[in-house]
Backbone:
């Protein structure tokens, strides 16, 4: 039987760094990439199946909105899967506003030990926030790849994302997600799977490449 170390359970990171700090760094990188997206790129495809650039950014903002609700101890599915209807020049402001509210929602240390109930997991706030670090980092990679950017990745954010997902089986994910969706609100049951089966990558590849490959992308 595996157990979670006390430090990891409390902080959400294997280094003992407060996961809120690490998550904020991941969000900052995401903001840098969003800021550099040109209006003529918004309708372009992305590595995230079913999402063009505009829809992906809207989903990323939606992820932050869910993280806000988690930090408050509220139902994250009250937030939409993606934010829509914003003007082409309003995405960065929406991201920055959501990021500020994430920081406010998670400011109380009680948010790190409160159990977050999701259809696929019931974990402490710290471990849940670490798992959402994976989503932010990988979608930032999706967006950067789609728009020809090469951001400087925060090593600890990438490492935290990796630690949060590397225990997931590399194969059989469509069946796994079908079972998860059965327990989700009806409006989310037709959403695309968040990860395809893992893609092979060299053992000595950079961690960001290993991370996105494990998330089903081809680096």
Residues:
């Amino acid at each position: 039987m595996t157990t979670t170390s006390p430090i990891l359970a409390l902080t959400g990171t294997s280094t003992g760094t407060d996961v809120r700090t690490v998550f904020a760094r991941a969000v900052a990188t995401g903001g840098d990439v969003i800021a550099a997206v040109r209006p003529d790129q918004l309708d372009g495809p992305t590595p995230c199946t079913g999402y063009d650039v505009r829809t992906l950014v809207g989903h990323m903002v939606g992820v932050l909105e869910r993280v806000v609700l988690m930090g408050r101890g509220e139902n994250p599915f009250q937030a939409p899967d993606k934010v829509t209807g914003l003007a082409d020049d309003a995405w960065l402001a929406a991201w920055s506003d959501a990021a500020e509210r994430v920081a406010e929602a998670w400011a109380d240390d009680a948010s790190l030990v409160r159990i977050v109930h999701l259809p696929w997991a019931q974990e402490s706030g710290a471990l849940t926030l670490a798992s959402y670090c994976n989503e932010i980092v990988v979608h930032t990679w999706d967006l950067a790849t789609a728009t020809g950017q090469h951001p400087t990745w925060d090593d600890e954010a990438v490492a935290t994302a990796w630690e949060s997902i590397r225990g997931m089986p590399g194969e059989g994910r469509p069946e796994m997600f079908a079972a998860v969706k059965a327990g989700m609100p009806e409006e989310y049951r037709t959403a695309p799977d968040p990860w395809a089966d893992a893609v092979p990558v060299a053992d000595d590849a950079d961690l960001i490449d290993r991370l996105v490959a494990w998330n089903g992308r081809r680096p």
